[in-house]
Amino acid sequence: MGLFVAQLLTGLANAAALFLVASGLSLIFGVTRIVNFAHGSLYMLGAYVGVTLMNVLPGHFGFWGSIVLAGLITGLIGVVIEMCVLRPVYKAPELFQLVATFGVILVIQDLALMIWGAEDQLGPRAPGLKSVVRILGEPVPQYDLALIAITPFILFALWWLITKTRVGILVRAATQDREMVGALGVNQAWLFTGVFFLGSALAGLGGAIQLPKGGADLLMDLNIISAVFVVVVIGGMGSITGAFLASVLISVLNVFGVTYLPQSTLVLMYVVMAVVLLVRPYGLFGREEKAGEHGQVGEPDRPIRPFGKVGKALTALLLLGLALVPFLGSSFAQVLIVDILIFCLFAASLQFILSTGGLVSFGHALFYGGGAYAAALLMSYAETPMEVAFILAPISAGLIALVVGWFCIRLSGVYFAMLTLAFSQLGWSLAFQWNEVTGGDDGLVNIWPSAWLSDTTAYYYFALVFVTAGILFLRHVIHAPFGYALRAARDSARQAEATGIDVRKVQWMSFALAGAIAGLAGALFVFSKGSIFPNELQISKSFDALIVVFLGGVKTLSGGVVGATFLEGAKDWLIRLEYWRLVLGLVIIFVVIIAPDGIVGTLRRLGERLGLRRQEEFMR
């Protein structure tokens, strides 16, 4: 009994920092409707600023004062981020905002590395709270008890601020209908800035208050952001009460999971989130999202048309150039181009559901890695010929997408995205922990193609054919009646249903098709490398695809291909720089603000302007 109580108290103490960070994110989303992925970076900054101040300010006042100051300083940093990066993209599509905050993450990571170095910073013990208390014979740190006592006061303070003050009334009004708040004369820009300050300050407080328990390190931003999003989604985006209850639930379950079911610790919170979303699609205390709440009202997408003569000629020249690479380039060049081609196909499959279908997936790597693992498992355990395994891989990935999509299509917006993330994490955990079958962290090796494809040049042409076929097939589907139905469902689900389109069925089928194409890319990858490891299923793989789709151009059919080519080509140069994350982050932020149409869209607009000028000069 004593151990049970001690573990329960540990979980409640862990919930304190998690609640602070989650409540800040929930406030920011509730008012601005921005899903701020950089919130974990603000938590990390709060920890680093807090430990720096604690080393300077002595005693009780210095310790608790440092926590408060760390929150205020982090809040001011959040204001700078909001004004310089996010304010210009409030009316941009949701993906642009996500990518902008991802760029902020990269910038803050390298700035923290410059200022505090790569070594972990140990947090000082809280003055007067350095010992333990025996409860039913089990030791419980005094600081844990202090955190448990402090958390309800923080919850009450936030409740009072939101419900009893004029600022809180404006915040609640903006959460319900921010356009009406603006129509009543409230300066929305400064309201958003104030809320961002408060949310960022709460994240900084969370980072500083956990220092005696965990210290500060450069990975803590990524380590907490997933848990924070899970908490906010379970509680309901915009709900402080929901964030509090979900923080307690997740923290307590994690503590007991470590003790009684250690294999579940990697995915337990994602399982809980998936169950909650399947029962309550908008979280425990959330509300249904409305069209346009995420900044999706902007310039409408242009009607897409098949390639004209110029487009077909350029495509033919590109394919001819790729076909001549083995005659002009080295074996290394062929291997590099194969990697780029595979990633282009993976990105194109995500572009299909994101741009054409309007479905933002955070877990698309599940199908890429699923196709790769399907081929590897068939060859490793069933001694399946390579050719058969290659055919079955995309079919397997498509079936996985069919099952996952059946659950996810019921949701929309950030809830859809987070449920895809949950399923992706389940897949990663299965590959990582099922050592007897998947090899765990050691992966599956010696998965080589047949003898007729063992030569580098032979496999190069093999990959070129299937990547080209996959991308052209997606383009054909987009221009087919199915593609038009999918775009109709994206633009207006109600009007599409009124015309007889089964919106959910069309979205479900498109989700499965995109999964199958991603599985084809995974099959090409595993046979090009001869191995597969769980990292191909990680969140970072899905976000790499999101980034390249954005860089290439969200509203263009070739955006994923162009973005993947650009990023994969630049990666070899970028990773040679000491602070490559800073450079990449600044490039991403620059593109979001200055050239939101991406590489393809920007070039197209420049071409149109030049063509218009030429017409004007001719008329003169």
Q: What does the model show?
A:
- This protein has 620 residues and is mainly alpha-helical.
- 74% of the residues lie in helices and 2% in strands.
- It contains 26 helices and four strands.
- It has helices at 2-32, 39-54, 59-86, 94-116, 142-164, 166-183, 188-209, 211-214, 220-235, 240-260, 268-279, 309-323, 325-328, 331-356, 365-381, 386-408, 413-433, 435-438, 456-479, 481-491, 493-498, 503-529, 539-552, 559-574, 580-594, 598-619; strands spanning 132-135, 138-141, 444-445, 531-532.
- It has a two-stranded antiparallel sheet. A two-stranded antiparallel sheet has the order 3-4.
- A hairpin with a 2-residue loop joins strand 1 (132-135) and strand 2 (138-141).
- Helix 1 (2-32) packs antiparallel against helix 10 (240-260) and helix 14 crosses helix 24 (559-574).
- The longest helix is centred in the first third of the chain and has 31 residues, at 2-32.
- The chain is globular, with a radius of gyration of 25 Å.
Layout of secondary structure:
Elements: H1 2-32, H2 39-54, H3 59-86, H4 94-116, E1 132-135, E2 138-141, H5 142-164, H6 166-183, H7 188-209, H8 211-214, H9 220-235, H10 240-260, H11 268-279, H12 309-323, H13 325-328, H14 331-356, H15 365-381, H16 386-408, H17 413-433, H18 435-438, E3 444-445, H19 456-479, H20 481-491, H21 493-498, H22 503-529, E4 531-532, H23 539-552, H24 559-574, H25 580-594, H26 598-619
Antiparallel strand pairs: 1-2, 3-4
Could you report the average pLDDT, rounded to the nearest whole number?
85
Unreliable stretches (pLDDT < 50, length at least 5) are 291-298, 613-620
Q: From the alpha-carbon coordinates, what is the Rg to the nearest angstrom?
A: 25 Å
Fraction of residues in helix: over 70%
Tally of DSSP β-strands? 4
Principal-axis shape equals globular
Quote the distance from N terminus to C terminus: 90 Å
Percent of sequence in beta strands: under 5%
Read across the widest sheet, the strand sequence of neighbours is 1-2
Question: Major beta sheet, specifics?
Answer: 2 strands, antiparallel
Question: What class do helices, strands and sheet pairing give?
Answer: mainly alpha
Q: Secondary-structure element order, as H and E?
A: HHHHEEHHHHHHHHHHHHHHEHHHHEHHHH
Number of helices: 26
